[in-house]
Design a protein that fits this description.
34% of the residues lie in helices and 27% in strands. The protein is of the alpha+beta class and 451 residues long. The chain folds into 3 domains: 100 residues, Rossmann fold (3-Layer(aba) Sandwich); 70 residues, Dna Ligase, domain 1 (2-Layer Sandwich), CATH 3.30.1490; 244 residues, D-amino Acid Aminotransferase, Chain A, domain 1, CATH 3.30.470. Strands 13-12-9-10-11-14-19-17 form an 8-stranded antiparallel β-sheet, with helices on both faces. A hairpin with a 2-residue loop joins strand 6 and strand 7. Helix 4 packs antiparallel against helix 5. The protein is globular, with a radius of gyration of 21 Å. The protein starts with a strand and ends with a helix.
């Protein structure tokens, strides 16, 4: 097992990884920008190294600085968390070239799954269903129109190297194709350094369902069930559930086994997530995330398995601690992503936290690096807390979530807690009757009523 792990991240996920390491008797190294010198993960780590000024490109994306920090502190391994360099194949390769273990999949798997066109082809080869669409990048408007005519409008133009909800546009009719194709290519080139785009069928009211997997170096693979991540705004997840209120036991067993078999044939290692759109009883692959997910705690809540601990064990060469037959699912879990933003306009709200009181009690977990007096920085993602609740049933979970949201105090800045309080009171959500567009429809309706 490792003696020391460098955590190449910040905020709540850095703190989450630190906790797993210390429970395993592993020392931690925190890296931080000058803006994060007083961050909680820096305070609690065994060692810390400043890797640059506030801007992420000069610190948390500064590969030479991170490698140097790992080298001078004699770290055995690097855990990238999520975001930043977590799905950067070049970074994973550099880490390994320096004799340091990258806690994640192989660089080749990261690279392949990071290319949306190549990954779709590979997944089709592995036997999983994909959304109807192009087999490669669109070279011309005429080609795009021919494909769209064949699969039927509306269609979705997507950046091959895209992610995080960027580089996507819906085309509702042939006359929109030229402009939106040009816009998406330009955005893809600017955001990802790759202007290649592809086209797939636009599903009108699908759910977003993903399957969590763990795989070791010996070819053993388990799945940990599904998460429903359909509560989204501008393709960004807002709230997640495990399991999905849309699936029955037979469906979740079937898709879980399909994913497990595909991942095993792929030869994958460590944690990963296969994401699908689900509509009218059918699943359609959209992407594979080759890292730890923000929403992993809901899966931990219903399985009792520490996914970060398993990531570390696998990276150290240990076999999976569980077989598929030993995985059981207990109760229901919901996670609310709480951002430092206006709950109405979603304008970032950095600043000093004047009061902080997280909720507690049975079945309540808060993953956050906030504390009273902490200053939320304007330089990074606005996620400041994840409120995770667990109950024996979905109804018990909802009641517990309402109570926890009422208790949660974050003073001095605006947060999206009021938005979550509004969501959990809506009849559609209570009934589990929603899709990936539901939240935006709800918000548009609320804005119209206010106007």
């Amino acid at each position: 097992m490792f003696d020391k792990i460098l955590i190449a991240n910040r905020g709540e996920i850095a703190l989450r990884i630190h906790r797993a390491c210390h429970e395993m008797g592993i020392q931690t190294v925190a890296v931080h920008s000058t803006a994060d010198a007083d961050a909680m993960h820096v305070r609690l780590a065994d060692e810390s190294v400043c890797i640059g000024p506030p801007a992420a490109r000069d610190s948390y994306l500064n590969v030479p600085a991170i490698i140097t920090a790992a080298t001078v502190t004699n770290a055995d391994a690097i855990h990238p968390g999520y975001g930043f360099l977590s799905e950067n194949a070049s970074f994973a390769s550099i880490v390994e070239e320096h004799g340091i273990v990258f806690i994640g999949p192989s660089p080749d798997h990261i690279r392949l799954m990071g290319d949306k066109i190549a990954s779709k082809g590979k997944i089709r080869e592995l036997g999983l269903p994909v959304v109807p669409g192009s087999d490669g990048p669109m070279e011309s408007e005429a080609e795009a129109r021919r494909l769209a005519d064949g699969i039927g409008y509306p269609v979705l133009i997507k950046a091959s190297a895209g992610g995080g909800g960027r580089g996507m546009r819906v085309v509702n009719a042939p006359g929109e194709m030229a402009e939106k194709l040009s816009q998406t290519r330009a955005e893809a080139g600017a955001a990802f350094g790759n202007s290649a785009v592809y086209i797939e069928k636009y599903l009108s009211r699908p759910r977003h369902i993903e399957i969590q997997v763990l795989a070791d170096a010996d070819g053993n693979v388990i799945h940990l069930g599904e998460r429903d991540c359909s509560l989204q705004r501008r393709h960004q997840k807002v709230l997640e559930e495990a399991g999905s209120p849309a699936l029955n036991d037979a469906q979740r067993r079937d898709i879980g086994q399909q994913v497990r078999s595909a991942v095993q044939r792929f030869g994958y290692r460590n944690a990963g997530t296969i994401e699908f759109l689900y509509e009218n009883g059918a699943f359609y692959f959209i992407e594979m995330n080759t890292r730890l997910q923000v929403e992993h705690p809901v899966t931990e809540a219903i399985t009792g398995i520490d996914i970060v601990r398993e990531q570390i064990r696998i990276a150290a060469g240990a076999p999976l601690a569980y077989t598929q037959d030993e995985i059981t699912f207990s109760g229901h879990s919901i996670e609310c992503r709480i951002n430092a933003e206006s709950p109405d306009l979603f304008v970032p709200s950095p600043g000093r936290v004047t009061d902080y009181h997280p909720p507690g009690g049975l079945g309540v977990r808060v993953d956050s690096a906030l504390y009273s007096g902490y200053t939320v920085q304007p330089h990074y993602d606005s996620l400041v807390s994840k409120l995770v609740v667990h109950g024996a049933t979905r109804n018990e979970c909802l009641m517990r979530l309402r109570r926890a949201l009422e208790e949660y105090v974050i003073g001095g800045i605006e947060t999206t807690i009021p938005l979550h309080q509004h969501i959990v009171e809506q009849a559609d959500f209570v009934n589990g009757d929603y899709d990936i567009h539901w939240l935006e429809r709800m918000m548009a309706g609320a804005a119209g009523s206010a106007g």
